[in-house]
Amino acid sequence: MTPSGHSPPVPPRGRRVSETIEQLRGRILGGEWPLGGRIPTEPQLVAALGVGRNTVREAVRALVHAGVLECRQGSGTYVVSTDELAPVVARRLTDDRMAEVVEVRRAFEVEAARLAALRRTEEDLTALDAALAERETAWRDGRFEEFVEADARLHVVVVAAAHNTMLAELYASVGTAMRASVAQASGSLEPERYTDHSRLVAAIHAGDPERAAHEAGAFLEHQAGA
């Protein structure tokens, strides 16, 4: 026990920095600081986290180096990724590797769809329906960039419905690559490149894991042949 009137021992500096990095990462993953948003200023972080300026500075610098944060002169520090893997994947993304991207997506998305059919909640189903409707509206209105984002969002919702945290985190790391593959497969929203996702959502609604996995694999086969 700590004697009365004495402060608890101060953790070693390296441990304080590591703990602060984990706190920052937790707030990013928890959505408190969304992708593309600006994080609080250094004084605000000092007050919120209860650590010194140097500790905050080192923790932020580590996440900048990892590609999670980006410092913009005169503007602030922004969230540019949800994890350290995403920048690595993005750097490896080239047109001649797009077939590999589709294969990686298949590895994640087929299993995610199967698990989603088994584990989805009513909230998941509501989110799936909303994401599908947004995707269809963007396609119908010919809004290419919004369609790519809406399509990506639908797949993220499917993965979230699988309720596997590690799968969701790994899938987030291929977000840039996923959007690139969707954009390539869709062309300029050419009618012959349309891929129906309603059967996938219906299979998850029905709680049919085999059909959900089949539908997820089917549209990725379509993309691979686009």
Automatic annotation (TrEMBL):
In Gene Ontology terms, what is one molecular function of this protein?
DNA-binding transcription factor activity
Specify the HTH gntR-type domain's residue ranges: 14-82
Swiss-Prot/TrEMBL keywords: DNA-binding, Transcription, Transcription regulation
What start-end ranges are recorded for coiled-coil regions in this protein?
Answer: none
Tell me the Pfam families matching this sequence.
FCD, GntR
Record's PANTHER family?
Answer: REGULATORY PROTEIN GNTR HTH (PTHR43537:SF47), TRANSCRIPTIONAL REGULATOR, GNTR FAMILY (PTHR43537)
Protein name (database record): DNA-binding transcriptional regulator, FadR family
Q: Which organism is it from?
A: Micromonospora inyonensis
